[in-house]
Amino acid sequence: MHLFSIALLGLLWANQALGAAVFAHFILGNAWNYTVAEWKEDMTLAQEAHIDAFALDVGYGDSTTATQAALAFEAANNVSFKLFFSFDYDGGTGAWPQADIIDYLKEYGSNPAHYKYNGKPFVSTFEGPDYASDWKTIKSETNCFFVPDWSSLGAEGAYKAGGGGIVDGLFSWGAWPSGPNDMTNSTDLTYLDLDIPYMMPASPWFYTNLAEYSKNWLWRGDSLWHDRWEMIWDLKPEWVEIITWNDYGESHYIGPIREDALSLMEEGGAPINYIENMPHDGWRELLPFAIDTYVNGNATLINEGVVTWYRPNPSEACGTGGTTGNTVSEGQILYPPGEVAQNKIFYSAMLETPANVSVTVGGKSLGATWVREAVDGVGLYHGAVEYGSATGKVVVTVTRDGETVASIAGESLNATCTDDVSNWNAWVGSNTTSTTKKENTRRDTTLPVKSKHAHTHLHRGHNHFH
Ligand SMILES: *[C@@H]1O[C@H](CO)[C@@H](O)[C@H](O)[C@H]1NC(C)=O
Ligand SMILES: *[C@@H]1O[C@H](CO)[C@@H](O)[C@H](O)[C@H]1NC(C)=O
Ligand SMILES: *[C@@H]1O[C@H](CO)[C@@H](O)[C@H](O)[C@H]1NC(C)=O
Ligand SMILES: *[C@@H]1O[C@H](CO)[C@@H](O)[C@H](O)[C@H]1NC(C)=O
Ligand SMILES: *[C@@H]1O[C@H](CO)[C@@H](O)[C@H](O)[C@H]1NC(C)=O
Ligand SMILES: *[C@@H]1O[C@H](CO)[C@@H](O)[C@H](O)[C@H]1NC(C)=O
Ligand SMILES: *[C@@H]1O[C@H](CO)[C@@H](O)[C@H](O)[C@H]1NC(C)=O
């Protein structure tokens, strides 16, 4: 009997990650004006996207952390959402003293809204490997399950930090490709090779331009949001953490833009407000299907619909704003930003049977097609089309047998930029309709995009705003 159970467990393990949960990194330092109502709204939106929990990024010395953590847990209990802490060792006034971490975990670890793994309170970090040995004490005092991001040391270095035997799993911050290349799974494979649970990062975009933090670079987003979920389906990591829910400064937010959380644009010295009128909500539309497929190996398509994203300014039209492709702060070779971020319109669709896609700019058709499509017809489709020198209104339409399934009248491509500075952030739009039939589908896609074998470095760009 006992042996049988172990064999069964082994089988389940081989087939499917047992944890299979998806979290979103949430910068608490951007939420100091949040009310319980706003917390609940954000949590409800995350639940609608099938996200399980927020990883609350907290910097040491941020005077609003205690208040906002209390409101967040109150809201989470109210809407049955989950939370855990990601102690940020770089983002505050200094590294976290172990006594303060123990206090937080003693206060919230047993809270019903605290995310648990194997019955233990789950805890993560942003960096802090120099303090690895603190966690021997923290773990013995709090019984936490410890999954830090110590990407600066690489997978093996993180595993062995503090003399080894400290981490229960590892999170990687390597969510973006390096240079003019598409994303690869090479960094993820170094973590999976360790045979401890892996938390895989998924991010849609990266652009930051904050003089106060000496940050001004981009990494390739482009088709990343689609490509990354396919990699997650293939690799089946124990958990996925989306980077991020609300890091506006690095343009990878998938949560709503909140006017009372944007002070960074002024205080961080951004030359233009690159967040205003740049919604990313459409990226969440793909998540229920993508996440269910990761968790169950298949998913039910609830809506049909299309999502599109692109930069509003062609790369050669305006000044770069000093933005580079890649960053010397990560020891990378620099590229012109327009070589890394392509002048393309990207689109993904969730469809129950095949359909055609079209993209027009200023009324002129660009001849868009799918680059990837669902094998059995039902599932995710994706593509991208170069727009050359076209400017004007962007319209993305999905049609089937001459009828419109969904259509987006999007932001214009505009060669005139505010203060002659290109906005390298993405504008995201979506349009969904409910399906007529609801079927289970498998994840398969065809026509793989040709992937270059990029050398993926550590990528841990991060905001420090407290
Ligand atoms: C959530 O908050 C509402 C309004 O304050 C209250 O009526 C409700 O009972 C709360 N629900 C839970 C489960 O705490
Ligand atoms: C990793 O990526 C390579 C190149 O795209 C692919 O051939 C391989 O199957 C991937 N590995 C896994 C385990 O999915
Ligand atoms: C919070 O609100 C105050 C008062 O309106 C505002 O000055 C501040 O910029 C807001 N904080 C954030 C993070 O936006
Ligand atoms: C979908 O996944 C569920 C849960 O793993 C499984 O029971 C079911 O057989 C799967 N269906 C298909 C069509 O693969
Ligand atoms: C481009 O931006 C300029 C300046 O903001 C504006 O006047 C113009 O209408 C815009 N063009 C398009 C096609 O949106
Ligand atoms: C897609 O377009 C082609 C060419 O116009 C047409 O033959 C085909 O029927 C269309 N497919 C669907 C599903 O509408
Ligand atoms: C969504 O697409 C439908 C079908 O084309 C269209 O009638 C509707 O106006 C679109 N909604 C938005 C918000 O663009």
From TrEMBL:
Region ranges (Disordered): 431-466
Keyword Hydrolase: yes
Biased composition, class Basic residues, residue ranges: 450-466
Biased composition regions of type Basic and acidic residues, renumbered to the chain: 436-445
Listed name of the protein: Glycoside hydrolase
Ranges in a coiled coil: none
Organism: Aspergillus sclerotiicarbonarius (strain CBS 121057 / IBT 28362)
Superkingdom to which the source organism belongs: Eukaryota
Gene Ontology terms, MF aspect: glucan endo-1,3-alpha-glucosidase activity
Keyword Cell membrane: no
Higher taxonomy: Eukaryota, Fungi, Dikarya, Ascomycota, Pezizomycotina
InterPro entries: Glyco_hydro_71
CDD domains: GH71 (cd11577)
Keywords, comma-separated and alphabetical: Hydrolase, Signal
Pfam families in the cross-refs: Glyco_hydro_71
Signal peptide: 1-19
